[in-house]
């Protein structure tokens, strides 16, 4: 198993990307990680931080796609960027999966136009495993397709269901459509049309789900267009941070509250772990021919390691072949 890593993508590249790759090599059955990026910058980072590369090699390129760059830069403007080169290496079989914490739009373009769609897939989507009060669920689309047609949402439900069955081992994952009400008559014309398609789907569609139900884990797969899904994702992460910071401040107010904290510390730590997005590291591009993982842009070493874990899951479960069989 060989994993191609965009060493220059993300806010904390290349140091946290390299450290995360080393953690992944220690934890998972990976034969080699290929660090794609500027060789001088990577070597300087390694030297400055006393890092010893093991089971990793550097594939040199000269450019980097920044977060503010146009997504199509991966195709024309920056063909020698770490992301563009990584996608081409994946496409040519030099590695089995590609992981990047870089520009989301550019990853979507590269996955769709360089790696290309699985036959039968209408639109690939970004799918993110999210924590809940019950158990993890899958949210898709998280930003690849801001505008969708009803048949796209219908297929997102199918792709998400296949993922949760094979990767997360949910026997009959429930699929719900994000909406402003649970009634079939609620929502935009797009959501109403998608509902009409999904209620006759071969997967376990349970209807609409309101935003307040999502954190309780009332559905195993939550389907939305990319605009709505991205709002849900970022609001979810923001609220979790606010709540945890508020709890911390409450217990650090005075000596008595600090003493009280000792009695509930274990439970609070468990809750913090349960709702920590870093446990899953990022999102997967569902619907393309090879595993492409979008790590969080602010990924630290642990977060990036967990993004690589998703690539490992993809390969160990032979998920793409299973999607191809289901669709064709």
Q: Outline of this structure?
A:
The chain has 328 residues and is an alpha/beta fold. The chain has helices at residues 15-27, 39-48, 82-91, 104-115, 150-166, 189-198, 226-251, 255-274, 301-316, 319-327; strands spanning 2-6, 32-37, 56-60, 97-100, 125-130, 137-140, 174-178, 204-209, 221-223, 282-286, 292-295.
Q: How would you portray this structure in words?
A:
The mean pLDDT is 92. The chain has 328 residues and is α/β, with parallel strands linked by helices. The radius of gyration is 20 Å and the shape is globular. Helix 1 (15-27) links the parallel strand 1 (2-6) and strand 2 (32-37). Helix 1 (15-27) packs across helix 9, helix 3 (82-91) packs parallel to helix 4 (104-115) and helix 5 crosses helix 6. 44% of the residues lie in helices and 16% in strands. It has an 11-stranded mixed beta sheet with strand order 3-2-1-4-11-10-5-6-9-7-8, sandwiched between helices. The two termini are 26 Å apart.
């Amino acid at each position: 198993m060989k994993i191609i890593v965009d060493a220059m993508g993300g806010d904390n590249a290349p140091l946290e990307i390299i450290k995360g790759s080393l953690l992944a090599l220690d934890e998972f059955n990976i034969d080699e990680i290929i660090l794609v990026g500027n060789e001088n910058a990577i070597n300087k980072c390694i030297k400055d931080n006393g890092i010893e590369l093991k089971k990793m090699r550097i594939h040199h390129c000269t450019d980097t796609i920044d977060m503010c760059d146009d997504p199509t830069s991966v195709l024309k403007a920056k063909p020698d960027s770490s992301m563009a080169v990584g996608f081409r290496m994946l496409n040519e079989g030099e590695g089995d999966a590609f992981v990047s914490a870089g520009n989301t739009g550019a990853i979507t373009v590269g996955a769709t136009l360089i790696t290309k769609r699985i036959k039968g897939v209408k639109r690939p989507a970004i799918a993110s495993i999210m924590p809940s009060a019950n158990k993890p669920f899958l949210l898709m689309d998280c930003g690849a397709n801001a505008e969708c047609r009803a048949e796209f949402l219908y297929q997102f439900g199918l792709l998400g269901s296949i993922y949760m069955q094979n990767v997360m081992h949910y026997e009959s994952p429930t699929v719900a459509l994000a909406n402003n009400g649970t009634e079939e008559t609620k929502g935009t014309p797009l959501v109403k049309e998608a509902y009409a398609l999904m209620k006759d789907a071969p997967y376990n569609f349970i209807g609409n789900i309101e935003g307040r139900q999502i954190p309780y884990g009332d559905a195993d797969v939550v389907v939305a267009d990319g605009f709505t899904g991205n709002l849900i994702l970022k609001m979810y992460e923001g609220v979790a941070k606010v709540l945890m910071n508020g709890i911390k401040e409450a217990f650090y107010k005075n000596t008595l509250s600090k003493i009280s904290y000792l009695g509930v510390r274990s439970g609070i730590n468990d809750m913090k772990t349960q709702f920590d997005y870093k446990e899953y590291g990022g999102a997967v591009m569902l619907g393309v021919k090879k595993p492409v993982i979008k790590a969080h842009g602010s990924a630290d070493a642990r977060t990036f390691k967990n993004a690589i874990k998703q690539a490992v899951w993809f390969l160990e479960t032979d998920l793409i072949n299973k999607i191809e069989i289901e669709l064709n």
